[in-house]
Amino acid sequence: MNGYAALLDVTQYPPRFKHEAIFAVFETLAPGLAMEIINDHDPKPLHYQLEAEYSGQFDWQYIAEGPEIWRVRLERRESS
User: For residues 25 and 6, is the Cβ–Cβ distance under 8 A?
Assistant: First the structure.
């Protein structure tokens, strides 16, 4: 899976289920592993929600920034 533990394409999910699905996968990631999220809009609100709930526990990197598809690499940080 291109170095990812999970690939989650949420473009077909109803908006109200996108964050729920992403959090469910993120919570299963072992420290040091990453998932890729594919979305049809900038997932910046997701980033804010992750900061609120998992501050300091993840790394966020845009791979593609629209205008039609956004791809984000979300890695669970290893404990220090």
Answer: yes
